[in-house]
Amino acid sequence: EDGSNGNGASNYDASRVQKENEPSDSTSTGTTAYWPPERFIKGSGANAAMDMWSAGVILYIMLTGVHPFDLAGTASDEEIEKEIMSDPRPPIRDDLTGHLSESAVDLITKLMEPNPSKRLTAYEMVNHPWVKGQTASADKMLDSDKRLLKFKEVRNHLEAGIFAVLVRHGHQDVTISEAKPEVMKNIRGAEEGEGS
Q: Given pLDDT bands bounded at 50, 70 and 90, which one contains residue 16?
């Protein structure tokens, strides 16, 4: 199975509209960093509640500049899974979310609700006061552009580091755990070269 029958944000494939809570045929599609806790349970199919979690992760990244379960931007899929399974609630603390309105934090928290039956639906999300602009602040979000740029730079360095390791190893089977020290060395070298 090639995994192409999945859909939605957690699978980056919108090939068809899936009815709410309708399971998909696949259990191995998508990107681990955007999976909700229930997705790690064997036999669980994708559904709309999972996509809402993914939307919460994306919103968290957009508003904070960091991934909620990979704050440094260097974790492997296995490490992200461990973080999600040990505590699936997104980190809500002053250094990360202190600049956000209560309404924005409320939306993130409800999208990333660990219990899928309590998680916001798409309809509830588009009617949330933050999405509708009812709680918009006139205050400027200081340095939001810098936080997003930093997230992008870390991801770019990570991708470049992975590519370099693959080239160096001749595209042989190399696990993330085996490649991680070399990838991290490449990332640190690239950041030092930029004067970061």
A: very low
Number of C-beta neighbours around residue 85 at 10 A: 12
Nearest to 88 by CA among 126, 115, 107, 63: 115
pLDDT digits (tens, 9 = 90+) for 100-120: 899 999 999 999 999 999 999
* CA 186 to each of CA 24, 154, 172: distance values in angstroms, whole numbers, following the listed order: 38, 11, 19
CA dist., res. 139 & res. 126, Å (int):
23
The SS3 of residue 22 is coil
Which secondary-structure segment (H or E) carries 102?
Answer: helix 102-111
Q: What distance in Å separates the CA atoms of residue 46 and residue 105, rounded to the nearest whole number?
A: 25
Residue at token pair 């790690």: 40
Of the pLDDT bands very low, low, confident and very high (cuts 50, 70, 90), residue 190 is low
Instruction: Specify whether the CB–CB gap between 70 and 33 falls below 8 A.
Output: yes
**Superfamily name with CATH number, domain 1-139:** Transferase(Phosphotransferase) domain 1 (1.10.510.10)
Q: Fill in the DSSP letter of residue 89.
A: S
- What Cα–Cα distance (Å) separates residue 52 from each residue in 9, 37, 46, 78? 8, 12, 11, 22
Residue written as token pair 């939605």:
8
> What's the CA angle centered on 73, arms 69 and 74, to 5 degrees?
100
**In the Cβ-directed half-sphere of 149, how many Cα atoms lie within 13 Å?**
5
